[in-house]
């Protein structure tokens, strides 16, 4: 049958179309999508990446609606565990790392949310306060934090871990800093 189609010229065109579809099906996945699909176990990925991360890198734990960003400096992973478990794991891994500590930020919008506005809010806050030392958290407007991530990811790696939490403005941003050097000593050597 293929020979009959080929003889009419239609087969020739059909053959080229088939070849193009096969080539398109084998083309590589875009880089940002590949980063998400290959690294499905977020704990293993974070464990592998932690020694490579340093000051100016960020780790962000987000709710489900957080967008998949396309910047090559951002890797997005999915964690099926509850949000508070992911926060605890990330916080513990940072605390155990000998080379970094974290400045922790959350969305300023959290300060005006309530159970009435966002069902599940009270439970979220109760679990978060048992998991994370909230006295160390600084609050900033959500858009400002997103802009900082965009700027940072142009030069440094940002690791985003999405959870299945469906409460707005619940992202927690860990900005890594050098664990064995501080601003005071940096200022002294600059004199």
Following the backbone from N to C, one meets helices and strands in this order, namely HHHHEEHEHEHEEH
Number of domains: 2
- CATH topology-level fold name of the largest domain: RbsD-like fold
Q: Give the total of beta strands.
A: 6
Structural class: alpha/beta
Mean pLDDT: 85
- How many separate helices? 8
Uncertain runs are: 16-39
Rounded to the nearest angstrom, the distance between the terminal CA atoms is 83 Å
Query: CATH top level of the largest domain?
Result: Alpha Beta
Polypeptide structure, described:
The protein has 191 residues and is of the alpha/beta class. It has 2 domains: 1-28, no CATH class; 39-190, 3-Layer(aba) Sandwich (RbsD-like fold). The chain contains 8 helices and 6 strands; from the N terminus they run ααααββαβαβαββα. The chain has helices at 2-8, 10-26, 31-38, 42-49, 83-96, 121-131, 142-152, 183-190, and strands at 58-62, 74-78, 100-107, 137-140, 158-162, 172-178. Strands 2-5-1-6-3-4 form a 6-stranded mixed β-sheet. Helix 6 links the parallel strand 3 and strand 4. Helix 5 (83-96) packs parallel to helix 6. The longest helix is centred in the first third of the chain and has 17 residues, at 10-26. It is globular, with a radius of gyration of 23 Å. The model is unreliable at 16-39 (pLDDT under 50).
């Amino acid at each position: 049958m293929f020979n009959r189609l080929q003889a009419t010229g239609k087969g020739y065109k059909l053959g080229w179309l088939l070849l193009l579809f096969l080539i398109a099906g084998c083309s590589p996945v875009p880089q940002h999508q590949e980063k998400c699909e290959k690294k499905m176990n977020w704990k293993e990925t974070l464990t592998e990446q932690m020694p490579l991360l340093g000051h100016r890198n960020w780790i962000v734990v987000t709710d489900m609606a957080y967008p998949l960003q396309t910047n090559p400096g951002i890797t997005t992973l999915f964690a099926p565990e509850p949000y508070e478990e992911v926060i605890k794991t990330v916080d513990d891994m940072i605390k155990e790392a000998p080379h970094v500590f974290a400045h922790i930020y959350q969305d300023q919008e959290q300060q005006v949310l309530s159970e009435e506005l966002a069902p599940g809010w009270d439970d979220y806050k109760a679990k978060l306060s048992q998991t994370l030392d909230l006295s160390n958290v600084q609050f900033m407007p959500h858009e400002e934090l997103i802009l900082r991530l965009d700027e940072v990811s142009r030069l440094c790696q940002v690791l985003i871990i999405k959870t299945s939490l469906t409460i707005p403005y619940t992202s927690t941003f860990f900005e890594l800093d050098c664990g064995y050097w501080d601003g005071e000593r940096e200022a002294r050597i600059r004199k």
